[in-house]
Design a protein that fits this description.
Length: 136
């Protein structure tokens, strides 16, 4: 579950399936905190931030900031880069192009160090000024 849950949550996000994303959050929320690995808690916080942002919630920025902090402390560079790109996409939607550009740059740097072309492609697709899809 440690590795499958973040993949399922990301798939739900990429498919704009809020019902499944919510059900996945409910699944983890059913566990006591000590039953979840720190990475799972960080990924849960990221999934929650994405839902808040999708709903236009006023606390999306704070939720992303907390989630990114958790990912920096408890996750892998790969998962961190995806979280940073999620935050960048949110920043672009709310008109913070400069901050989004910095986040994309960070994620692209991680992608290059990991030699991960799909992650680098995602970073390039979120550049400020480019048309975006709902999942980018």
């Amino acid at each position: 579950m440690r590795w499958a849950w973040p993949l399922a949550a990301r798939a739900a996000y990429d498919l704009a399936d809020a019902a499944t994303a919510t059900a996945l959050l409910d699944l983890l929320d059913g566990y006591r905190p000590e039953q979840l690995a720190p990475m799972q808690r960080a990924e849960r916080d990221l999934a929650r931030a994405r839902l808040i942002a999708a709903d236009g919630g006023p606390y999306a920025g704070a939720a992303f900031a907390a989630a990114i902090t958790g990912l920096r402390q408890h996750s892998t560079p790969y998962h961190l880069a995806h979280g940073v790109l999620d935050h960048a996409a949110y920043l672009l939607r709310v008109g913070h192009d400069q901050a989004a550009g910095a986040a994309v740059g960070e994620a692209a740097g991680i992608a290059e160090r990991l030699r991960c072309p799909p992650l680098l492609d995602r970073a390039e697709s979120i550049q400020p000024g480019r048309p975006r899809t709902a999942a980018s």
